[in-house]
UniProtKB/TrEMBL annotation:
Gene3D superfamilies: Glutaredoxin
Name this polypeptide is given: Glutaredoxin domain-containing protein
Stretches assigned to the Glutaredoxin domain: 5-64
Matching Pfam families: Glutaredoxin (PF00462)
PROSITE patterns: GLUTAREDOXIN_2
Amino acid sequence: MNQTVTVYTSSFCPVCGMVKSFLDSFDITYKEVIVDLNPIARMKVIGKTKRLTVPQTNINGEWISGFDPERMLKILIK
């Protein structure tokens, strides 16, 4: 199944690293958007999630805030 995964991160976010490591451990390809280097992307993700925090992960159109491996797996295996 072709997954579309985007992880919105910040350069100094340890939880963002946990999300990326988790995805890497399952060989899941993802696009990383570093929002502190991209204010337009930051505003877009805030508009979609209504949250000011990172990481924000979009998997196949579903948003996950923070590090929630159980929910990530549920979405990925649908």
